[in-house]
């Protein structure tokens, strides 16, 4: 700190622009992710220009499978939900809705729901492109 001791209190009188940490934060701000108000369709359209539709769908499916496996290991409610969904029994609709309600606050389940939404959007955008 070139002779200025943090214990002396003199470091408080320097301007933030001269400190390397403020430059680091400025660079982080400049390279942050897209604005949160940007719609899912806009973000997916941007990804389409950089990647093929099939590759994007594959990457999302792989990520969704990974999250699903993690949730399946940690949540008995999700395990039962998968079994009921796979059985395709119409009498299980009430149980399925109850299990989904239990999982609504689980971060893994929320991510899976968003990925399913992204898969639907990709399919819709792909059909519009053809």
Give an overview of the whole structure.
By secondary structure, this protein is mainly α. It has 2 domains: 1-32, no CATH class; 40-129, no CATH class. The chain has 6 helices and no strands. Helix 2 crosses helix 6, helix 3 (53-74) packs antiparallel against helix 6 and helix 4 packs antiparallel against helix 5. The N and C termini lie far apart (62 Å).
Query: How many domains, as an integer?
Result: 2
Biggest sheet features: none
Structural class: mainly alpha
What best-fitting shape do the alpha-carbon axes yield? Answer: elongated
How large is the radius of gyration? 24 Å
* pLDDT averaged over residues: 75
What is the element string, with H for helices and E for strands? Answer: HHHHHH
Helical stretch count? 6
| Alpha-carbon distance between the two ends | 62 Å
Spans of at least 5 consecutive residues whose pLDDT stays below 50 are: 4-21
Strand percentage: under 5%
Number of strands: 0
Quaternary status: single chain
Binned, the helix content reads 55-70%
């Amino acid at each position: 700190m070139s002779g200025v001791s943090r214990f002396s209190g003199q470091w408080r009188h320097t301007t933030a622009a001269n400190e390397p940490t403020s430059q680091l934060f400025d660079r982080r701000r400049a390279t942050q992710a897209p604005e949160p108000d940007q719609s899912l369709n806009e973000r997916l359209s941007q990804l389409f220009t950089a990647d093929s539709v099939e590759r994007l769908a594959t990457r999302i499916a792989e990520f969704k499978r990974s999250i699903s496996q993690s949730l399946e290991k940690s949540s008995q409610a999700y395990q039962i939900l998968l079994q009921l969904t796979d059985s395709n029994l119409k009498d299980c609709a009430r149980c399925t809705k109850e299990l989904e309600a239990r999982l609504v606050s689980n971060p893994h389940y929320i991510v899976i729901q968003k990925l399913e939404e992204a898969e639907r959007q990709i399919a819709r955008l792909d059909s519009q492109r053809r």
